[in-house]
């Protein structure tokens, strides 16, 4: 999907983010200092940069300014423990596309990453799961080359599962993402739609049920 550079000096957090990105189809590259980040940007085509503001060798805001001047096509998401409003404003005014405060849920980070990648047209548009093809750009789903009609809600659920592949999502979270927080349904609504998706696309073995929790699309 996308080459994402993680600039984070905490090696545990850096590796956790990297593994999560790999699980969801992205390529996670790591840097632990500002200098390492600049070196990586000079050598590779980076689609997105996740930047910790509190780096050991330089201020993250200064680094972001340099990146915005030298690599104008690389979007930045600030991922930091600094939660004060002035820091948020400084980050966003300094060129960051988003600002997320630690601690955070990986699911939220992935959602924000997908939004920024879509904004810069760097997201993956076509997915293949065995004989199923999902073309997000055209909103077309095919099985064995034959178009399959999904309802709007089924299609939204499928997109959410694709964006969070290999990650377990609770029924409540799926309800929030696909129906909105104002919807007064329950987990059974999700169950019914998941069963329909499985049947229409033959994905009984791909969309796993997580007992007493929710579902995970395994790729």
Describe this entry's structure for a reader.
This protein has helices spanning 11-23, 34-43, 60-70, 85-93, 106-119, 152-163, 171-179, 187-201, and strands spanning 3-7, 27-31, 48-51, 76-80, 98-101, 126-129, 132-135, 140-143, 146-147, 169-170, 207-210, 214-217. With 219 residues, the chain is α/β, with parallel strands linked by helices. The protein has 2 domains: 3-119, Rossmann fold (3-Layer(aba) Sandwich); 126-217, Winged helix-like DNA-binding domain superfamily/Winged helix DNA-binding domain (Arc Repressor Mutant, subunit A), CATH 1.10.10.10. α6 (152-163) packs across α7 (171-179), α6 (152-163) crosses α8 (187-201) and α7 packs across α8. The chain is elongated and about 55 Å long. 30% of the residues are buried. The model has no long low-confidence stretch (mean pLDDT 90).
Provide a short characterization of the protein structure.
This protein is α/β, with parallel strands linked by helices. It has helices at residues 11-23, 34-43, 60-70, 85-93, 106-119, 152-163, 171-179, 187-201, and strands at 3-7, 27-31, 48-51, 76-80, 98-101, 126-129, 132-135, 140-143, 146-147, 169-170, 207-210, 214-217. The protein folds into 2 domains: 3-119, 3-Layer(aba) Sandwich (Rossmann fold); 126-217, Winged helix-like DNA-binding domain superfamily/Winged helix DNA-binding domain (Arc Repressor Mutant, subunit A, Orthogonal Bundle).
């Amino acid at each position: 999907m996308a080459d994402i550079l993680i600039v984070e000096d905490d090696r545990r957090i850096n590796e956790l983010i990297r593994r999560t990105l790999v699980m969801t189809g992205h390529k996670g590259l790591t840097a632990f200092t500002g200098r390492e980040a600049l070196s990586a940007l000079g050598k590779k085509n980076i689609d997105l940069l996740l930047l910790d503001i509190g780096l050991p060798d330089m201020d993250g805001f200064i680094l972001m300014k340099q990146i915005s001047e030298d690599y104008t096509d690389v979007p930045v998401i600030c991922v930091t423990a600094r939660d004060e409003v002035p820091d948020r404003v400084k980050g966003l005014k300094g060129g960051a596309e988003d600002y997320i405060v630690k601690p955070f849920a990986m699911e939220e980070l992935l959602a924000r990453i997908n939004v920024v990648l879509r904004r810069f047209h760097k997201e993956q548009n076509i997915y293949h799961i065995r004989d199923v093809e999902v073309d997000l750009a055209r909103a077309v789903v095919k099985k064995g080359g034959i178009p399959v009609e999904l309802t709007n809600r089924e299609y939204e659920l499928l997109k959410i599962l694709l964006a969070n592949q290999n990650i377990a999502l609770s029924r409540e979270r799926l309800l929030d993402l696909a129906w909105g927080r104002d919807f007064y349904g329950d987990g059974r609504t999700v169950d019914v739609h998941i069963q329909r998706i499985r049947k229409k696309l033959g994905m009984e073995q791909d969309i796993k049920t997580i007992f007493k929790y929710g579902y995970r699309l395994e790729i």
